[in-house]
Amino acid sequence: MLETLTLISSLGCWHGGEDEAAPSKQSTCIYIYKEQGGHSGERPYECGEYRKLFKNKSFLTEPRRDHKHRNVRTGERPYECSKYGKLFHQNPTLHIHERFHTGQKTYECSECGKSFHQSSSLLQHQTLHTREGAYECIKYGKAFAEKSSLINHRKVHSGAKRYECNECGKSFAYSSSLIKHRRIHTGERPYECSECRRSFAENSSLIKHLRVHTGERPYECGDCGKSFRRSSSLLQHQRVHTRERPYECSECGKSFSLRSNLIHHQRVHTGERHECGQCGKSFSRRSSLIIHLRVHTGERPYECSECKKSFAENSSLIKHLRVHTGERPYECIDCGKSFRHSSSFRRHQRVHTGMRPYK
């Protein structure tokens, strides 16, 4: 049974107990008091100012939290990076971002002494040391920290898929996979970024996205030191060093380091094209057609949080952001000069090579 308590005064915001009187000259947040708690997933405490619900009363009462949710609601970004002026909703996000300017790495591995900007990066690294003696799959040699994870993994080998989607009939080995899959049909995206309000169907996707704001790149190449936001990007990059090209075209034998490049190449043989219904222009990639359609619709969904300039492509926004951050990721190994764009870098290299492409 829910019991709603409403107390209103003139100034401030106070979150006292049910039977406590509010101090004078302070208003009291409206909250919902639930007589019996438990693990129901309910959020019984409500902020009267922004109507946001919380599981624990501490989210309202602890001074250090100070209505962090208010900044997300209002769009306020009170925390500013002293180096580049980038703004953040929350102070912890700013602290993480600033470590990449100072080079501060506060999280050190007790096994090998390697240090990291973030605790999440340290935890990811520590799995390298803990794999030995963990729960290992005999068939493929894959190791897991917990026995339950190994048991779940074995279902992949057995082919058991007990959880079926009643919308499309697709079945899954795990109930959690079915829950995630259903969001394709419902359109539910419950995980929202507090910085830009973009939402995601999976928490793992949100975690990866947050690295765009914090600058975190936890996956580092052991050969050249280049780091990446995603483990998949690191694996793809490592093929530059190994020269591995595992994806081979069955028609002509040409091989590729990325599966997406193979799929794109195969359209040379099949002749498959994606045509624009407005002007008849066709593309070998569906993603290229989607981007092209914005020429007709005028849609520019990617907006710069610094100057509000918008772009039709995410890649254009990423390049534009370097104007604000000062980032110049393309460095010439001959003279040390750096550039914002790869095209400018390639043009510069001709100074050293003497190449004259236009005759």
TrEMBL record:
This protein's record includes keyword Cytoplasm: no
Molecular functions per Gene Ontology: DNA binding; zinc ion binding
Keyword field contains tRNA-binding: no
PROSITE patterns: ZINC_FINGER_C2H2_1, ZINC_FINGER_C2H2_2
Pfam families tied to this protein: zf-C2H2
One cellular-component annotation, GO: nucleus
BP terms from Gene Ontology: negative regulation of DNA-templated transcription
Annotated localization: Nucleus
Top-rank taxon, per record: Eukaryota
Record's function text: May be involved in transcriptional regulation.
Family of the protein in this entry: Belongs to the krueppel C2H2-type zinc-finger protein family.
Name of this chain's protein: Zinc finger protein 586
Organism: Nomascus leucogenys
